[in-house]
Design goal:
The protein is α/β, with parallel strands linked by helices. The chain is built from 15 helices and eleven strands. This is Probable nitronate monooxygenase.
């Protein structure tokens, strides 16, 4: 017969095993299962930044790399997909900007090239949902409100990225801290947190809010594998907590970037009541100038508020391992 001591010891072993398994589940979430990745970290689909080298490096490091299609011609997107596949045998995706006049062609290329998943922004992807779902493509729209998250779930989305206004580039009005838990409560599909996440603390906080993964953009902008101009990277690394600026509030299309000569001129014109056409002329091609040419004075240096927390250039492997190590420790789980 079993003694009370042996029964108690056996129960303690089972409890310990259950605890270990529970810890492992934090890394193995519905997002890692959905995308077939090791760690629940996605790289943002940043225009001019998110190309084959960065996407492949993130995927090779255990995350989910994403090619930013932005407004690129369809043939360029196809080339980027094929180049990424030469650099990694891991899953990766494409971010489809729905305002792109070529969005329909890009949507078709995603299917033809056998891309694992897409994230979408700047619109409703419902028109492409039947095409993608039939081909087995996982669809993950980026949302900035509970209403949009619910709409995307009804349309057949596999997950959503709840992106707070702390993020770089085009932003909504809700913060990550307030948006993520409300979206988690409103939908049954997995939620990925984005906006203001740049280290293990942000990763842990996102999970405490109910997210099952995180998406980061600004942190990967300074990755060694990113083609971002060194001056762009340096500007992010040198950024302070108060260096963030939002332009475009006057016409309902706010964009977060790092304050410079261009943003000051833009804000001045907005206050003076300048029209959309005049403002667009000021920023025409400005993101490309900053990312590719290093014009961090007259170009648009898109970056999130988390830029002030980023102090060095690292490989994607180093970034992801650092975040997973610190985040797992804070959550009390195994990496």
């Amino acid at each position: 017969m079993w003694s009370k001591a042996s029964v108690r010891a056996d129960a303690e072993v089972r409890t310990a095993q259950a605890d270990v398994e529970s810890r492992r589940q934090i890394v193995k979430t519905r997002i890692t299962e959905l995308l077939g990745i090791k760690y629940p970290i996605l790289q943002g689909g940043m225009a001019w930044v998110a190309e084959c080298h960065l996407a492949a490096a993130v995927s090779n490091a255990g995350g989910f790399g994403i090619i930013g299609a932005a407004s690129a011609p369809p043939e360029v997107v196809k080339e980027q997909i094929r180049e990424t596949r030469k650099l990694t045998d891991k899953p990766f995706g494409v971010n489809v900007m729905l305002m792109n006049p070529n969005a329909a062609q890009v949507a078709q290329i995603v299917v033809e090239e056998g891309v694992k998943a897409v994230t979408t922004g700047a619109g409703n992807p419902a028109q492409f949902m039947p095409l993608w779902k039939e081909a087995g493509v996982k669809v993950i729209p980026v949302v900035a409100s509970v209403a949009m998250a619910k709409l995307m779930e009804r349309a057949g989305a596999d997950a959503v990225v709840a992106e707070g206004m702390e993020s770089g580039g085009h932003i909504g009005s809700a913060t990550t801290m307030t948006l993520v838990p409300q979206v988690v409560d409103a939908v049954s599909i997995p939620v990925i947190a984005a906006g203001g996440i740049g280290d293990g603390r942000g990763f842990a906080a996102a999970f405490m809010l109910g997210a099952e993964g995180v998406q980061m953009g600004t942190r990967f902008c300074v990755a060694k594998e990113a083609i971002t101009h060194e001056k762009y990277k340096e500007r992010i690394i040198r950024a302070k907590d108060i260096d963030s600026e939002v332009t475009g509030m006057s016409h309902g299309h706010p964009i977060r970037c790092i304050r410079n000569q261009m943003t000051r001129e833009y804000v001045r014109l907005e206050k003076e009541g300048a029209g959309l056409e005049e403002l667009e002329q000021l920023t025409l091609g400005s993101l490309r100038k900053a990312v590719m040419e290093g014009d961090v004075t007259g170009g648009t240096v898109m970056a999130g508020q988390i830029a002030g927390l980023i102090h060095k250039e690292q490989t994607c492997e180093e970034i992801i391992q650092e975040i997973m190590t610190d985040g797992s420790r804070l959550l009390g789980v195994e990496k």
